[in-house]
Amino acid sequence: MKKSLGATIHAMPSPVWVVGSYDNKGEPNIMTAAWGGICCSSPPCIAISLQKSRLTYANILEHNAFTISIPSKLYAMEADYIGIVSGKNTDKFSVTGLTPVKSDVVNAPYVKEFPIVIECTLLQTVDIGLHTQFIGEIVDVKADEGVLGEKGVPAIEKVNPIICSASDRKYYALGQYLGEAYALGLKLSEEKIS
Q1: What is the DSSP code (8-state) at residue 74?
Q2: Nearest-5° Cα angle at 129, 92 to 57
Q3: Is the pLDDT of residue 192 over 60?
Q4: Fewest CB atoms within 10 A around its CB: which of 13, 36, 93, 190?
């Protein structure tokens, strides 16, 4: 029997993404965000949800651009720190030793050391309540060559991204490979046909 937990945020897992933006003085800033995901395939778009009190909120509205840098599990400590302190009074790049890189396609910085970067222009905002959803149209995705798989796209086992369990506030690495998407479930059809 299932127990009711109420209207809470127990969806699993959440990504651990580092959102890059420039402040009103042109200084690079980063913050960790867990509320996000792909929201459209054509045009390719990604969504993140931020509170109005965050520096990144104002930065994205001012510059109409942001990046998402996806850290590998090697950078779990840095990614957590980036989400703990405010860029209003801390240079997170200096403290973490990470390197800001100016995007060549949008007006936002990304993290050099992280294997995947998604560069976005702001397409739309949706005021939801405590959070506002920023929908970014993906202009480009950059990946370190070392994380590309045999098909020339990022391979999750090479990226080794971090995931978050929001309900118990813990970070995890990915688990075992289970099968091919859009193929594993076909076995059920094959069994019914037999």
Answers
A1: G
A2: 25
A3: no
A4: 190
| Tally of CB atoms within 10 A around 27 | 14
The three-state secondary structure class of 193 is helix
Instruction: Enter the DSSP assignment of 178.
Output: -
For the beta carbon of residue 82, count every other beta carbon within 10 angstroms.
27
Report d(CA 34, CA 21) in Å as an integer: 16
Task: Provide CB contacts within 8 A for 114, sequence distance 6+.
Answer: 18, 69, 70, 71, 72, 75
Domains of the chain: 14-193 (2.30.110.10)
Using one digit for the tens of pLDDT, what is the confidence trace for 155-185? 999 999 999 998 889 999 988 888 888 888 8
* CA dist list (Å): 17 to 6, 34, 68, 111: 27, 6, 6, 11
Tell me the whole-structure pTM to 2 decimals: 0.93
3-state class (DSSP) for residue 186: helix
Nearest to 37 by CA among 28, 47, 29, 45: 47
